[in-house]
Amino acid sequence: MSDPIFERIAIIGAGLIGSSIARAATAYGAAGSVSLYDASDDVRARAAGLDIGEVAGTLADAVKDADCVILCVPVGALAPVAQAAVPHMKEGAILSDVGSVKKQAAEALASADDGRVFIIPGHPVAGTEQSGPEAGFPTLFRNAWYILTPQSGKGEAYDAAADRLKAFWVVLGSKVETMDPARHDRVLAITSHLPHLIAFNIVSTAFDMETVEEGEVVKFSAGGFRDFTRIAASDPVMWRDVFLNNKEAVLECLGRFSEDLAALQRAIRWGDGDFLMHEFSRARTIRKAVIDAGQDSGAVNFGRNQNGAKPDA
Amino acid sequence: MSDPIFERIAIIGAGLIGSSIARAATAYGAAGSVSLYDASDDVRARAAGLDIGEVAGTLADAVKDADCVILCVPVGALAPVAQAAVPHMKEGAILSDVGSVKKQAAEALASADDGRVFIIPGHPVAGTEQSGPEAGFPTLFRNAWYILTPQSGKGEAYDAAADRLKAFWVVLGSKVETMDPARHDRVLAITSHLPHLIAFNIVSTAFDMETVEEGEVVKFSAGGFRDFTRIAASDPVMWRDVFLNNKEAVLECLGRFSEDLAALQRAIRWGDGDFLMHEFSRARTIRKAVIDAGQDSGAVNFGRNQNGAKPDA
């Protein structure tokens, strides 16, 4: 193991992602020490029992000696937490986050900028449908993308800080990509936000049908529906904030999705088998591209635990 | 191993399901011998190389000595295949199918009824996104539901034949349920048909966005989208026939789904976080029910291979 990238990191928010970073930073030697803080007394107490880092009693205590502070809270909470953290941070330390929406995240972090710290937003594209400090594991980020959305034209010291943050995620096993925040939000809207919204929605529709069909929906869920219930079991607060903060890109994708669905609906109603065949066959093409990309890069973590099995397998 | 349920079965259509039944019937001793036929010369040749049964050169040869003939072809092909098979079947043999839509399947099989055979439609609720004789495996039906939709009031001999068919699937490892065809079609519309349609649709929408976003959709598909591409990789012909033949129930579910999605869309546009939280939290409730049901019954096979891992894991 080589020297740690950071002497000490602070993780604010000890949920699935935060506790996984804490575990990974220690396991792969990316940080000399890890401090953790969570606004919830209950989560702090649970985290303290897990041996994943030093659980601090206050936010100020957690961040004061850290070279890098990573906020692992829902996007809607980023601004107040950043504003509370920055005054206690060391000069020259890095402030980052893990939010799934980068334009809003960048603005939220920037609202706390006092010119003493380097503000570098980022997003590890990894997760499971589990929540809480117990759900984390150190291999969560291995072979997953980590998207850095740094500010430009901030000077050499800033760029050097961004390089250190990149190096940290590389040690955690991630493949790092740099991207413009707006582009990140558009790409994630279609690859992640829309799929989650659709999963939430179909589960909700089925929930009502469950009453109509007297329990048979759950009983026969193995026919395809079950996969959606897994995706839809993800943290509601996190996802509420994603949709509220990536409104434009999500509504754009949703518009396209609804148009396309209306076309399928019309084809079913009018018995247009050729149209259905054409659309369904296209889906295989993109599946092949996804598999090829996955085989080249090994880029899959979503929804799997350390053994590569789905949690309910 | 006890005595086989059937001396000889015939499998017509040697794809994922047909070849899995052939393998399972032999592996678990449910049939004394297995004959196979597929309308495609190519599939017949491939099946012949797999040692999964005696591959016959004609449909008539495949069915002539069988006590039970199971048609494993798309729903749209059931009527002509049944009509071609029945005249060559033994008196008192069973004619069944594996179609995902039971009202139309029952009518298709009934169109071949000459009063000499027992027509008993059925549906194993199991599968993967793979197709072809190579994709089958003997454990596909273990712990999965098998839904029998027998005709009623057909007399004692018919009921005895239905009991034998049930026993066959029990030996294959399935949990057998008897259901009215119309109810089967409504329940499967929400648990299976709608989820597949939605998966096909989101992949189609993303396919177009892929051009807009220059390859980034596939690249970052691990954020949730990837799960949909797997479901959407299922056989296009099979699914075209499902939607064309379960039109009413699918359109009913689709109407509900679109209404619910419009409500989510409106909440996103107007920033109604409380509504989103309420809907997303409901999804966790049904997920818990699905997991509980799965743990009680072990009822999951969809999308997993013999080792319980997803094929792309």
What does this structure look like?
Two copies of one chain form a homodimer. The first copy, chain A, is an alpha/beta fold. Chain A folds into two domains: 6-180, Rossmann fold, CATH 3.40.50; 183-297, 6-phosphogluconate dehydrogenase C-terminal like domain (6-phosphogluconate dehydrogenase C-terminal fold), CATH 1.10.3660.10. The first copy, chain A, is 51% helix and 12% strand. Chain A contains twelve helices and nine strands. Chain A has a six-stranded parallel sheet, sandwiched between helices. In chain A, helix 4 links the parallel strand 4 (68-71) and strand 5 (94-97). The first copy, chain A, is globular, with a radius of gyration of 21 Å. Chains A and B meet through helix 7, helix 8, helix 9, helix 10 and helix 11 of A and helix 7, helix 8, helix 9, helix 10 and helix 11 of B.
The N- to C-terminal Cα distance of chain A equals 34 Å
Tell me the quaternary state. Answer: homodimer
Could you name the ranges of chain A where pLDDT drops below 50 across 5 or more consecutive residues? Answer: 295-313
- Provide mean pLDDT of chain A, rounded: 90
Which key terms come to mind for this protein?
51% helix, three-stranded mixed sheet, 6-phosphogluconate dehydrogenase C-terminal fold, 2 domains, homodimer, alpha/beta, six-stranded parallel sheet, 313 residues, Rossmann fold, disordered C terminus
